[in-house]
Design goal:
alpha+beta; 3 domains; 6-stranded antiparallel β-barrel; 4-stranded antiparallel sheet
């Protein structure tokens, strides 16, 4: 039993080690077929059924939209007598996926554009969603799922999450398809999501090795042309499916992303340094002000109370640490060395900027 436990432990460690070294990605995760893309849809609508948390009377476009909708339904309404406390004007957005067929549904995002306090409990009235060309591709309607709350009075208010934005899962019905003929394609053009010459060349090599033919050719850093194999002319979907699951080791440029507002630092694996020495220390200066009061004795028979200012000045400087980073160190070495001198995230940002200015950082430093 003890031998079996040891064997299982060794196998587990090996599996973790192997899984940690596998950094390859599928082609479907790093590239898309040219022409196979999502399209943005947008529409203007009304959410009704709110419990007094809708737009105020000063939101004129909400009142006008409600009056227009009621008139289209065959009713005549005096605009001056309309209250919109239970109605909110919203913008409805959605994404039309590629190969979406008429009758399929997509999720929609509903966002208030007036002064409504909350969309909780509301229902979106039939809203046409248009594409950039002005044509209607879907129609949205349904009850909102907000996942937030907001209530209170004149003196206090409680709010959780964001109550003026909601979603309708499957709330839009596709009414028009985007034309794209895949069956007649003899060549496939892939577009990398992150253009890189090394990555696109590796993709071409991986595809050619998988099929055993010279089918893939890199056009530039973002484009790859793949000729459909002769035995897959009548089964193009199967050919694309096989390409999607081919694994490629994507390359990435050496880059450091720093956000000084949040103290966030993200460093790539290819970041390298030339030989450089880093010293870190802080100077702290503390000034304390107090007042000393001088007054006459209890039986002095006269005198005046005087307040005398007293300043206490203290200066301290943390011990400086000098760390030498050798040439070509990896990101792990850099992190360990800088952590050894007690550098905080904000200190690291200043240190990386200084190393970059010294010309010893062989990576792009992006400050957000």
């Amino acid at each position: 039993m003890k031998y079996l436990s040891c064997l299982l432990a060794i196998v587990t460690v090996l599996l973790l080690f192997l899984s940690g070294n596998v950094c390859a990605s599928r082609i479907k995760d790093i590239a898309d077929i040219e022409g196979v893309r999502t399209n943005q849809l947008v529409g203007y609508g009304l959410v009704v059924g709110l419990n007094g948390t809708g737009d105020g009377a000063s939101t004129e476009f909400t009142v006008q939209s409600l009056v227009n909708m009621m008139e289209r339904l065959g009713m005549r309404i005096d605009r001056t007598k309309v209250k919109v406390d239970n109605v909110a004007a919203v913008m409805v957005t959605a994404k039309l996926p590629p190969f979406a067929k008429v009758g399929t549904t997509v999720d929609v995002l509903v966002s208030s554009i007036g002064d409504a306090d909350s969309l909780v409990g509301g229902t979106l009235i039939m809203t046409p969603l248009k594409g950039p060309d002005g044509n209607v591709y879907a129609v949205a309607q349904g009850a909102l799922a907000v996942g937030a709350l907001s209530f209170g009075g004149k003196a206090a208010k409680v709010q959780k999450n964001h109550p003026t934005v909601g979603r309708i899962p499957g709330g839009a019905l596709i009414e028009k398809e985007v034309g794209f003929t895949l069956a007649k394609t003899r060549e496939l053009h892939y577009r990398l999501r992150q253009p890189d010459f090394t990555t696109v060349e590796r993709m071409a090599e991986a595809v050619n090795n998988y099929f055993g033919e010279d089918l893939a050719h890199a056009i530039d850093s973002a484009s790859l042309k793949i000729t459909v194999a002769d035995n897959y002319i009548e089964s193009l979907v199967a050919f694309i499916a096989k390409i999607e699951h081919i694994e490629v080791m994507p390359d990435m440029p050496a880059k450091i992303i720093v956000n000084e507002r949040t103290g966030t630092i993200v460093m790539g694996d290819n970041v390298r340094l030339s030989r450089v020495a880093v010293s870190h220390g802080n100077l702290n200066l503390v000034v304390s002000e107090s007042a000393m009061v001088s007054q006459p004795g209890p039986f002095g028979g006269g005198g005046q109370t005087v307040a005398v200012a007293n300043s206490d000045l203290t200066a301290s400087e943390d011990k400086g640490n000098l760390v030498v980073l050798p040439m070509g160190v990896s990101i792990g070495d850099v992190a360990r060395a800088l952590n050894a001198i007690g550098a905080t995230p904000r200190d690291l940002i200043a240190i990386f900027q200084a190393i970059k200015a010294a010309g010893a950082l062989h990576a792009e430093l992006v400050v957000l």
